[in-house]
Amino acid sequence: MKKLKKNTTIQILSLLFLMAIVLFLLINHDQITKPKPIQKTGFYFNTIISVQLNDTDDTTLLDGCFALADRYEHLFSRTLPDSEIYAINHADGKPVTVSDETIELLQLGKDFGRLSDGRFDITIGTLSSLWDIPNNTDTIPSSEAIKAALSTVDYKQIQITGNTVTLRNPDTQIDLGGIAKGYLADAMKAYLNEHGCHEGIINLGGNVLTIGPKQSGEKYHIGIRKPFGEDDSDVITTVDVDDKSVVSSGRYERYFEKDGKIYHHILDTQTGMPYDNGLNGVTIISDSSVYGDALSTICFSLGLEDGMKFIESMDGYEAIFVDAQNELHYSMQ
Predict the structure, then answer these.
(1) CB contact at 8 A, 213 and 242
(2) pLDDT tens-digit profile of 28-50?
(3) Cβ neighbour number for residue 176 with a 10 Å cutoff
(4) Quick check: helix, strand or coil at residue 208?
(5) How crowded is residue 145: how many other Cβ atoms within 10 Å of its Cβ?
(6) Which of 127, 94, 318 has the alpha carbon at shortest distance from 224?
(7) DSSP-assigned letter for residue 155
(8) Residue 230: predicted pLDDT
């Protein structure tokens, strides 16, 4: 056998070296080309908000998301004295001119009121203030006080003309807490998509919104918190989604217990009392977070049987009901 010439040996070794480099680049392509996730956390709407972006290292996009959170809190909060909702609530029935975003959210609130026959009502502010569940430890309002508060709850009292809002009943109080977070999550996602970000997670407590399918093809695994579990890491089940909203509402979120009975923040607009209907929680999977926000409350208010019929009558929505024994019930889609 003839010996290989020295130059030939060098060429073969060089070729093998190049092939090794190409193979290394192919195997590690994702790690080389894909930026590390970036994340930012803040506190708005009485909730810890977290945004993680997987396909960009541009931190100004995170700043933009939280600028939206700050802006919307100063539009929609009913407790901040400089907010537009505060101005409407304290106008003694006089007209108030507000932003396009506030008009859009109020219109959505009225739409959900009609859809739910008033079970979801954004004029619940006087009643929710009466209960004051976040700060209440053991006080049950009197039946007289509840009756007086209920007399102010009627979304039809909101009159909208252009950008002007008038409360026909000056004692009515708007509370957008049931849909404001969902509206913010949708706005954040639209902002990120517009600026070229298409992979990540927006987490606003009970509202989780995934941004686009992952480049890897893997699904987002979203845990649903176990009712009355020790913390958020104690999950009852997980859902695998792509580019979807996952919103949960339940009596375990904000509540107090007295004489063995739980009093929670989801209030019946007919009785003025917290719902006691055999449910611990409802999760809605949908494209829109603001719709998931409202529908989770509506389905909870309807109870398991009627809530299941309601959500199954709507295209594009899935639901998971958790009953009082923490048994899971899935809608059919």
Answers:
(1) yes
(2) 554 455 679 999 999 999 999 99
(3) 23
(4) strand
(5) 15
(6) 318
(7) G
(8) 80
- pLDDT for the residue 229: 86
Express each pLDDT in 285-318 by its tens digit: 999 999 999 999 999 999 999 999 999 999 999 9
CA distance 136 to 72: 26
User: CB of 245 within 8 A of CB of 185?
Assistant: yes
Q: Which helix (H) or strand (E) holds 115?
A: helix 100-115
Say which residue the tokens 């996009």 belong to.
61
Between CA 218 and CA 215, with CA 59 as vertex, the angle to 5 degrees is 15
DSSP codes of every residue in 129-153: HHH-TTT-SSPPPPHHHHHHHHTT-
301 three-state secondary structure: helix
Query: What is the token pair recorded at 256?
Result: 């107090």
Distance CA 31, CA 55 (A): 11
Q: What are the tokens at 97?
A: 């001119």
The Cα–Cα gap between 201 and 208 comes to: 7
Residue type, 182: G
pLDDT reading at 24 higher than 80: no
* Amino acid 219: pLDDT: 96
pLDDT above 70 covers a percentage of the chain that reads 89
Contact 210, 222 (CB under 8 A): yes
Give me 67's structure tokens: 């600028």
